[in-house]
Design goal:
alpha+beta, 7-stranded antiparallel beta sheet, 17 helices, globular
Length: 371
């Protein structure tokens, strides 16, 4: 299937194509045996995740990480994974300067392994979060690591140790109690990857690979850290979470240039329509995952400095919900380096347009309002 594009000056603009068709082409390009219907109608997303990894990964601890992905989270995870691959390819995101695995001459293989581990495992902690009350006695993250009997401690290596520990304390001490799924997932995956490196030949040297495991797991730990709202600022101050308070001099928005992998994960995790429209069956007339993919249209626009992704829905209810969320106090613009606006496309459908600044840490809002 050829996806139509049209040249427009210095930009390369794809026409609107449904996510169903984009995902179908990506799956064919990957030569997988699964179709979109297999994954999202026949509920084979968990099987797809297992088959993304070689047999060496299917050992006890990694296998456990795969097996604890709940069915709906698997559907969202696979959608986010495929969406991320499309964003990288169709917005022609250059990964040549990204970190490479030891011995890799090209960044392509490194990106694919990084993205598979980060995205496909980013929600493995949900089973624990849904049973948060069970873990509330573990008031510190070190206590949780002991309780889970983890042999390898991510916090001993992470440069985000203080932030992760403070955010964990806030969540586990709150009402209701939350065991943050990003943090617990990162701890579990780091332990599993280090165990795999120690006990198999898949990695040539733990010393060489440890920094990559830390990067992967730090990304997962950080992806679910909510910024403070007007109602929660005092609580964030209580736990000294100045990094997560907008307007604070220590607060940092996640920009692509600063951390491409964290940006990409946070971005697709936020805009994935499966998560947005199928979670909790929020609508009066429930929608299926397939119908969401068939009725969500995407257009990719390439410019030299700013990339754009336009989302158009064959549903006013979807569009209204998506735009309201994007522009809320805790919406995507409050913590990611993007600018969101809406317009009507040539078919008259309301469209959500998201601009991404790849070149710098300056806000795209003032510079790209006319895009």
């Amino acid at each position: 299937m050829e996806l139509n594009t049209q040249e427009n000056g210095s930009s390369r603009m794809h026409s609107f194509v449904s996510l169903f068709n984009y995902y179908s082409k990506t799956l064919r390009d990957k030569s997988t045996k699964y179709s979109v219907n297999d994954l999202f109608a026949e509920r084979k997303a968990n099987d797809f995740i297992r088959e993304c990894f070689s047999e060496e990964y299917k050992v006890s601890k990694i296998k456990h990480c795969i097996n604890i992905i709940t069915p709906f989270r698997a559907l969202h995870t696979v959608s986010a994974y495929l969406l991320g691959l499309n964003i990288k390819d169709r917005l022609q995101i250059d990964t040549r300067n990204w970190r490479r695995l030891p011995g890799e001459k090209s960044s392509k293989g490194s990106f694919e392994l990084f993205w598979s581990l980060i995205c496909l495992f980013h929600d493995i902690g949900y089973e624990y979060e849904e049973s948060s009350e069970k873990y509330k006695s573990n008031e510190t993250i070190d206590g949780l690591i002991l309780y889970l009997n983890l042999e390898y401690n991510l916090l001993e290596e992470s440069k985000y140790k203080e932030l992760i520990s403070k955010y964990y304390k806030k969540r586990i001490s709150g009402k209701p109690v939350y065991l943050d799924h990003g943090i617990v997932g990162a701890l579990l995956l780091y332990d599993a990857l280090m165990d795999l490196a120690e006990n198999s030949q898949i990695y040539s040297s733990i010393k060489e690979y440890k920094s990559f495991f830390v990067k992967i797991c730090d990304t997962i730990a950080l992806h679910n850290m909510w910024r403070a709202s007007t109602d929660t600022i005092d609580e964030y101050k209580l736990y000294s979470l100045r990094e997560l308070i907008p307007g604070n001099d220590q607060h940092h928005i996640i920009f692509y240039k600063d951390d491409p992998l964290l940006f990409l994960l946070a971005f697709v995790d936020t805009i994935d329509p499966i998560k947005a429209f199928c979670r909790d069956r929020r609508y009066r007339d429930p929608v299926t995952e397939i119908s969401v993919l068939e009725n969500t249209y995407v257009r990719f626009v390439n410019r030299t400095r700013v990339k754009k992704l336009d989302l158009s829905y064959n549903s006013p209810e979807f569009t209204s919900f998506a735009y309201k969320n994007a522009n809320s106090e805790s919406g995507i613009m409050s913590w990611l380096g993007v600018f969101v606006r809406n317009f009507k496309n040539s078919q008259g459908n309301e469209t959500l347009s998201i601009s991404i600044n790849l070149d710098g840490s300056a806000s795209v809002e003032s510079k790209d309002r006319k895009l």
